[in-house]
Amino acid sequence: MALIQFTDKGLYCAEGNFYIDPWQPVDKAVITHAHSDHARWGSKSYLCHTFTKPLLQQRLGDNNYETLDWGQAVLINGVKVSLHPAGHIIGSSQIRVEHNGEVWVVSGDYKTENDGISGEFEPVKCNTFITESTFGLPIYNWKKQADIFIDIQNWIKDCFEKNTNGVIIAYSLGKAQRIIAPIAEVTSNIHAHGAVWNIFQTLKNTGFNFPDIKRIEIDAPKEKYKNAVIIAPPSAEASLWMRRFTPFEVGVCSGWMQVRGNVRRRNIDAGFALSDHADWNGLLQAIEATGASKVFVTHGFQSAFSRYLNEKGIEAAEVKTEFGNDEEASEELKIES
Length: 337
Prior knowledge:
By secondary structure, the protein is α/β, with parallel strands linked by helices. It has two domains: 184 residues, Metallo-beta-lactamase, Chain A (4-Layer Sandwich), CATH 3.60.15.10; 128 residues, 3-Layer(aba) Sandwich (Rossmann fold), CATH 3.40.50. Helix content is 25%, strand content 25%. The strands form three sheets. It has a seven-stranded mixed sheet, with helices on one face. A six-stranded mixed sheet has the order 1-2-3-4-5-6, with no helix packed on it. It has a six-stranded parallel sheet with strand order 14-13-15-12-16-17. The N and C termini lie far apart (41 Å).
């Protein structure tokens, strides 16, 4: 029997009697990170990274939470479990599972460039590695984060020169935290949608030091938003909520902006290919570094990516999961529709 099985409730370790990122309620859930496709309501107990706990509390309410720091191990019914940095978002972790000398690693979502706030991805040696493939095609090859930040800053300056506001679409948990520091280098007039602001407050209460942002006030006069930057989640894009910032331009932070035609199809003013997921080379480098003899490929371009791994001599197989519904991963459907 495999150490981790793929079931209708999620990734299951029978020896330890726990699930990793289950999509149905279970007794014991080990969570890679706080995005809603990986952390769902209803389980009796949750084990996660220390930084993930307050985010789960905000999103799932009060529950039985246990926490670990990176590298700290715990025995669950005789199975050794430890968490290791995934670099995806704050608190995101790979789950290392060991029993009778066999080691599996469930990576969750991850990226290999250190963004300065999420922890640097740590390759973990294992026999079997479970990887995402959100951007598992060669076309996805990210620019350095620092260069993208310069592009964002120049776009904001250009907006201000034209006396327009800059509305930046960024996922409320993940990219919104990454872009706040470079934005603050250009202006202190930064406002945020309530969903974004709530995440910032939760993280600031945990001890993270971010520049100040102001929450959007429904009844605030239009003059308050003059030469301002507004950070909003994808759900706000093209909504009536945006009208209060007129005149404005829209810039979208998403890995899907790597394909230039997506900017035109979405009728936006600027696209920044900033992603919280690994690009093609990052995926390949991460897998090679694990030394795994078997790789299971989940959400994204799993068919093409697993086929490529097999052609390279790495045994790989596709696995169907309910992961990949965070706002960036699901944006592909939005673009194509």
